[in-house]
């Protein structure tokens, strides 16, 4: 059943705060964080000397109030920070009716859908990295929205991506927008109505050479699912391919093998590797059989896919294959415990670190899937439905919905090194650039530095 349709119970829990990209082009300097999950889309920074302790009075360089709400991760290039936000306004005046979902002959209505009864203003923001001052803000879209979102989700969930000259933001059915660093709109493009079973979009745009690539998996049967590549300078469509998968919220990653470059995608029905230049399919394997939300991990010659609900699955695949690779040595190992619903796991050094919704950690050997430890706990009971972990300088940071960030020692033994907190909920992953951490709370963006 799950291979064709994600369970209705699971749909109620999809909270779109993931959002995700894979630049992988080597354009960004070490001090930039140009996309979701930063360099190579993996959540790992090579910087050292970063602060690992903070609170509202300690190591906060600045704290900037943000208009509206959003779950997009800050992306940073040089002294510029880019974010998106949704400002919910007055009641939608026309009596607009969002799309109906018919399942087994009956209309499906979720009790926690919301959003379409209001006018929304989607903004792209640019802040100064050193002061937190808003340098410019542009209204990307204002009006009614095509579809619902989950009440715990947000329409400004996909993270921007930048190449150091232009910045790109994506709002699902409400369009794709390209700005220069001064805030001038270069182009905008509509991808049409994107149906995500009323949960909202989660995938972020991906840059590859001259292309901006966006995944648009849709609804229960995947009939209208597609992936599209736009020319980065003009917004013109370069290629488009249909996708044989239902709604997903994972972002593709760019993977470089000795033989070629691949664009790798997760999915309920299929894991697929493509040629990013043309959209041609290289290989596929049976998917995670669940909500595809987590960003794939890349390292040690493997791509590691995961899901956390309704089933838990981790699948390690060796890229470079062709055709259906099920039952071949290209599928290297599998594991079926320890994963979170929304947050992605992280591959740091020789190990993959999984995290449950309660922050219970499992450590696996990346090459083999061998369990190194299980049951690593954080000091307090809390929930992790939003932020994905990041890592630097031998530490892994887990940020809870309550605004706590737990510092975990990387390696084969679980050890909690410290706990930090800000005074507001946090659903967005930390970004790292220029010796500082950038943490987006419900109302503020925090710059954390020694």
List the helices and strands and how they pair.
Elements: H1 8-11, E1 60-65, E2 75-77, E3 80-91, E4 101-103, E5 106-108, E6 113-114, E7 118-128, E8 134-143, E9 149-150, E10 161-162, E11 166-170, E12 176-180, E13 185-189, E14 206-208, E15 211-216, E16 226-231, E17 237-242, E18 253-256, E19 261-265, E20 270-274, E21 281-286, E22 297-299, E23 302-307, E24 313-317, E25 323-324, E26 331-335, E27 346-348, E28 351-355, E29 361-365, E30 371-376, E31 390-392, E32 395-399, E33 404-409, E34 416-421, E35 431-433, E36 436-440, E37 444-448
Parallel strand pairs: 21-25
Antiparallel strand pairs: 1-37, 2-3, 3-7, 4-5, 6-9, 7-8, 10-11, 11-12, 12-13, 14-15, 15-16, 16-17, 18-19, 19-20, 20-21, 22-23, 23-24, 24-26, 27-28, 28-29, 29-30, 31-32, 32-33, 33-34, 35-36, 36-37
What does this structure look like?
Helix content is 1%, strand content 41%. The protein is mainly β and 450 residues long. It has a single domain, classed as Lipocalin. The strands form 10 sheets. The chain has a 5-stranded mixed beta sheet with strand order 18-19-20-21-25, with no helix packed on it. Strands 1-37-36-35 form a 4-stranded antiparallel beta sheet, with no helix packed on it. The protein starts with 7 loop residues before the first helix and ends with a strand. The N terminus is likely disordered.
